Every structure is written in C-alpha cells, then in structure tokens.
Amino acid sequence: MSAAIVLEDNAAAGVDVRRKHMPEHLAFLQRNAATIQAAGPLAEADGQGAGGLWLVEAKDPSAVDALVGRSVLADRLAQVGANLDLESGFR
Question: In principle, which of 9, 11, 51, 58 could form an S-S bond with 63, CB 3.0–4.6 Å?
Fold first, then answer.
C-alpha cells in the first residue's frame, strides 16, 4: 500500500531541535529508504521549517505507524512539546 505522511511540527519547538537532530534524521531516512520512497521538508512562507512529507510503501497502516514511531526527529520534536500531527492517506 502507498501512503503519504504529513508530519507537522510546532514552531514553538524552535529551530535548534531540527538542526541538532538533522544528521540523525537523515541517517534514519537513508536506513529506511526501501520504505520511505521520497521525503522532503515543509516550510512556512518565511522559510521556517514546518514539518515534512514522506511517500511510503508499507504493508499496512500499522507498519506506517511503527515507522513514524521510530523517527528520531519526530520523537525529539514531541519531547520538547511540539504539536506533532500525523496524517496518513492510504490507497
């Protein structure tokens, strides 16, 4: 199944969280490249980070949930009080 994952973070978390964990996040994306077929950042009109978009090929919705749960950056943003929303579109 294909899924589009929108990860939306809260600007109140600060850009330092994103910068600090970006190398680990990019390594995560590379390790999971067979499942995360495309990924990219989302930005506000002013250029500030707003989250990310992943195109995923997974067995089922629970596999997608598990993948997102292993995301280092998503976890760190959640730890600092970010409003991390996950929206999945499956087909």
Answer: 58
